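Re: the request from the purification team.
They wanted to know what the chain is likely to look like in 3D before they choose a buffer screen. I agreed to run a prediction and write the result into the notebook, where they can find it.
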Amino acid sequence: MKFLKYVRTAALLCALLLPCRTALAAEAIGSGDADVLMQYQEYGERLRSIEYRSEIAENGFSVVENQIFPIEIAGYGEVSLIPAFEVTYHRLVLFFVTESGQVIYKTDQLETNNRVLGQMEQPDCSIAAVSFRDLDMDGRMDIILITVCTAADGSGEVYKVGDVLFQSRKQAGFYRDYRIAEKINRFGMNKSAEVITAFVRDGYSTEFLYTAATLQELLSQGLEIIPEQCNYRTFGKLGKLQVVPGTYRISNYDVFMVYLVSEQGDILFSLQPMGDYDNLYALKGINCRDIDGDGLKDIVILARYSYEGDEGQLIVESDYSIYYQRTGGFSQDTEMKETYQCGDEDTMELLVEEARAYWGWSGKDEEE
């Protein structure tokens, strides 16, 4: 019976959505949610009805006026790219409009509209960057789109979503390769249009930083070890491990990772202290000591990172990460970070004292 219900729902959805070229179709097919189907039907009808620029606002879409740009479209010459957010569901749509105001193409098949799968409403987001580049080298301008979204869990955290739209060769319009968008965002290559270009057009990728199995594999693909902070440490039952911090340069960014490597050269653990920052500016230190008083050696990383501000300015901040050793692995701190934010004047010793004080433990003078 459940299977028959699924088939009926899918058939109804196909009948409703075949005329509308949007991303939610694939999401809603498996949900069986009648409310979502009804919302999508109403939304799709409004989107399909827009044939002229003047009808965008009339149908519940808010134009992002400061992100309207000209672009050459084969067969039409120069048209305007007009991004707009649907005001109820926060879904982003790109409209391509001629000088006379006619909409020749529109799409909401965008990665940023898939943050909450199977739902119409998406998190609040804004456009961080729009860039036009010939990424597939076919003589037509493609689109790099980066949005900044607020986490749907209410934490207030923000994150970037990168996307690429390739201009079609046969007709006015664009298409996406979801596999490219998935790698851009899963492996942190959504920092800027330059990084996305380096990946899509030039073939550079950070994927190996997260998938490599051995230190030799990392080195062969371009990881640069930071030698002054690379040392062997004994982590209790985990044994003797080499702490290997390193960077990989893609475009104008240094991606920072720390690996724990066995004496045989196998990667046992990988740490990502850089988080959502764009670039490692300077590594101030790595300290391996018991922080929470459980007798197990933990890892403290202190560094300066850089990122692009809202107005395009370079911002440099000091930040830290603590990884607590647990049975069989390491767990990144989230509790202390909520109460203690370090500044540029913080040293490693001061940070270790603050961390131990947080756990109510004075520590002892053991060697790293």
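For the purification team: The chain has a mean pLDDT of 89.
Please add any questions underneath this entry.
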